[in-house]
Amino acid sequence: MKALLKALGPGLLFASMAIGTSHLVLSTKAGAQYGWIMVIPILLANLFKYPFFEFGIRYTTVTEKSLIQGYLNLGKTYLWIYAFVTLISTFTILAALYVVTAGLFMNLFHINSMGAGTISLGLFIFISLLLIVGKYRFLEESLKAVITILFVALLITTIMVLQKGTVPGSETYQRPEIFNEAGILFLIGLVGWMPTAVEASGWVSMWGMENLKTMKNKPTLKIAIQEFNIGYILTALLAIFFMIIGWMTLYGTGTELSGNAVIFADQLVNLFTTHIGNWAYFFIAVAAFATMFSTCMTAHDAISRVSVDILQKLYPKKSLFQNKNAFAIMVIVMTLINWMVITLFSANMGDLVALATFVSFVLAPLLGWMNLKTVMGNDIPLEHKPKLGLRILTYTGMVFLSLFALYYCWMLLV
């Protein structure tokens, strides 16, 4: 147990990163629109994607190298594929996360005088300073507290809404059709981003690398996987909590959750206070903001680390990328790029996120296969390769993701 507690880090960072829009927005909407039946795709997505993320921890713990190095070992083409996916994420994911977080901030402090772009810039600068000055250890320690508080708050709220029961009329309410075009598109979005996109396996690997640097004694593979499993199970539980809250409070009311970040933030906080009491408004608003703030921080950190590692592997002779301050520089570059995206393309943010969704969905099965090929490679001893059961789950997950990707492409083309 002592060794497990010392190894805590990558799994909790994964949980903090995943509990963003996929949980706050999509899980809540799933319960509100379709009811309890949405627990099935949420659990299936978490189950079938598990091996792809676990392989990131497995590879790094055994080899003490990043998953990006594993891709390079397979061949430069594989690294270029991952670099392409990361490039798309660079121009979309962070911008979208920061806009939602800015909306929550405006709601929390009732700010109407400044726009989301200005507040996003303030958040970018603040988080960049935290990442550059505090580095990995600060990120890890601060998020342990955030995750603990969020879990307790959500657990209490979920118990209270279950005790209160569903809203009047929900028993006779006819849920929208799931298997029509609108329902399938929502299902694809839910599954695609639950718990998060497959390319985040590289992010987990980078956090594993940083965690190893801070430890005197390297954890065993068993301990490292147990630590990751704690974070992964926590991620799935919180997704179900959000789904239940949406189901028990909105299902059958006809209320639609807004796509506007500020309005959605107000709706979300009111969901909690309706069942706990107005006295809890401030605490719930802070918890919701802290959730998205930590998601921004972990995603900003991860994409910066992965980008530096990719550039170092692709251009090993470029001194600029081998600089000891490369991470700090990349954090700043990410800030500038994404703030410009928010400023210039705020009206088309939905189209940019749709592009990221398309690329992520279409390439997810390929990335999953790359991860399996990496952990089955020659640099992993036989005793540390995934066992038959995990390999079968991996292939099942690849088929699962491929079907969703093919159907998604078909719906876009017809």
Describe the structure.
The structure is a single chain. This protein has 414 residues and is mostly helical. It has a single domain (2-413), classed as Up-down Bundle (Amino acid/polyamine transporter I), CATH 1.20.1740. It contains 17 helices and no strands. The chain has helices at residues 2-7, 10-18, 21-34, 39-63, 67-74, 76-90, 93-108, 116-164, 181-192, 200-214, 221-250, 261-276, 281-314, 319-322, 326-345, 349-375, 388-413. The longest helix has 49 residues, at 116-164. It is globular. It starts with a helix and ends with a helix. Keywords: Membrane, Transmembrane, Transmembrane helix. Its main location: membrane.
| Rg calc | 21 Å
- Structural class, by secondary structure, is mainly alpha
CATH class category? Mainly Alpha
Cα-to-Cα separation, first versus last residue: 54 Å
In CATH, the topology is named: Amino acid/polyamine transporter I
Q: Choose one word for the global shape.
A: globular
* Number of discrete domains: 1
Number of strands: 0
CATH architecture label: Up-down Bundle
Largest sheet features: none
Uncertain residue ranges: 1-7
SSE sequence, one letter per element: HHHHHHHHHHHHHHHHH
Q: Superfamily at the CATH H level?
A: Amino acid/polyamine transporter I
Measured as a percent range, the helix fraction is over 70%
Compute the average pLDDT.
Answer: 83
Enumerate how many helices there are, as a single number: 17
- The percent range for strand residues is under 5%
Membrane topology: Multi-pass membrane protein
Protein name: Divalent metal cation transporter
InterPro entries: NRAMP_fam (IPR001046)
GO cellular component, one term: membrane
